[in-house]
Amino acid sequence: MGTLRHQRIVILGAGGNLGRAFVHHLAPIAKSLRVYDRSELDLTQKKTLRRLFDERPDLILNCAAYTDVDGAERDEARAFEVNARAPGDLALIASGIGAKLVHFSTDYVFDGEANEPYAVDAPVAPIGAYGRTKAEGERRVRLALPHDHLIVRTSWVYAPWGTNFVSTIRRLLAERPVIRVVSDQRGRPSSALELARRSLQLIESGASGTYHLSDEGEASWYEFALEIAGVVGGRARIEPCRSEEYPTFARRPRFSVLDLSETHALVGKGRHWKEALREAIAPKELALGLPG
Ligand SMILES: NC(=O)c1ccc[n+]([C@@H]2O[C@H](COP(=O)([O-])OP(=O)(O)OC[C@H]3O[C@@H](n4cnc5c(N)ncnc54)[C@H](OP(=O)(O)O)[C@@H]3O)[C@@H](O)[C@H]2O)c1
């Protein structure tokens, strides 16, 4: 990672799936890295955000988000603060100090009614509060920082740490005789380790604007769960079900496969999700903690 090594880099939301993956990749190589989890820098507190004016980073990686899709439906105002207002404020600060802002968004900005992968410039039409707040965050970042932003839309993120689909299925495999998993929603699983690694490639290649980035291949949640069980073992039987049989507070897109062609053109293809899953599930040799 040539140029990144010499930049002043700040990671926000460093305690999450993706934030920790960036720390994992950057801590060994970056000469100047500041890492903030929510307890150290709350994006909704403008006063603490202003700290960035003093630090004057070259690059801000915003991994912070309100990611509780059902929770956002109940309290959209709170999701809005983190997912829309804060990225807009961050973009204004980045503009003021001449920093590049890398911001992450979601497949849930699309309605899920398509039958082919969503292109980067496909119209956004979120069907829920989480997607609405994330779409508004994108809009504000573009507006405040037209040239120096990179928005990376991703999907179905999991990591060897934290709470995510993989950790939930692993737990259920140990606890239950039968697990029912929806089979009529399709998307692309994304290992946070791969997402961070390839985002850094995009940054190094000078990408700006909006890109789609996930692991290669696609799956239903049911197929994803079967693969997890195949890797970790466990006695539970996994059965497919339809979305209607597994009611949730928020409606999810039926089809949220992102078209990756722009990313392929710039940095080539990534790993297939099944391969990335194996790496993420058995990361014993990796140093996974946040640096002190
Ligand atoms: N997870 C997915 O499946 C998925 C799918 C598509 C796109 N994405 C996007 O990918 C990015 C990374 O997601 P992720 O999976 O890493 O999410 P995550 O594991 O939920 O991490 C988000 C982090 O943001 C922190 N945070 C929340 N509110 C904050 C605030 N006000 N100030 C500072 N930090 C705050 C959270 O801290 P607390 O834990 O203390 O609340 C958490 O550590 C997000 O932009 C997300 O929208 C995720």
CATH classification class of the domain at 7-162 and 190-215 and 256-270 = Alpha Beta
Structural shape: globular
Give me the side-by-side strand order of the main sheet. 2-1-3-4-5-10
Identify low-pLDDT runs: 285-292
CATH architectural name of the domain at 7-162 and 190-215 and 256-270: 3-Layer(aba) Sandwich
User: Describe the biggest sheet?
Assistant: 6 strands, parallel
Radius of gyration: 18 Å
**SSE string:** EHEHHEHHEHEEHEEEHEEHEHH
Protein model, in words:
This protein has a domain at 7-162 and 190-215 and 256-270: NAD(P)-binding Rossmann-like Domain (Rossmann fold, 3-Layer(aba) Sandwich), CATH 3.40.50.720. It is α/β, with parallel strands linked by helices and 292 residues long. The chain has helices at residues 17-26, 46-49, 51-55, 69-74, 76-97, 129-144, 165-175, 192-204, 221-232, 261-267, 273-281; strands at residues 8-12, 32-36, 59-62, 100-106, 149-154, 157-158, 178-182, 186-187, 190-191, 209-212, 219-220, 237-241. It is globular, with a radius of gyration of 18 Å. The protein has a six-stranded parallel beta sheet, sandwiched between helices. The chain has a two-stranded parallel ribbon with strand order 6-9. A two-stranded parallel ribbon has the order 7-12. It binds NADP nicotinamide-adenine-dinucleotide phosphate. NADP nicotinamide-adenine-dinucleotide phosphate binds next to α1 and β4.
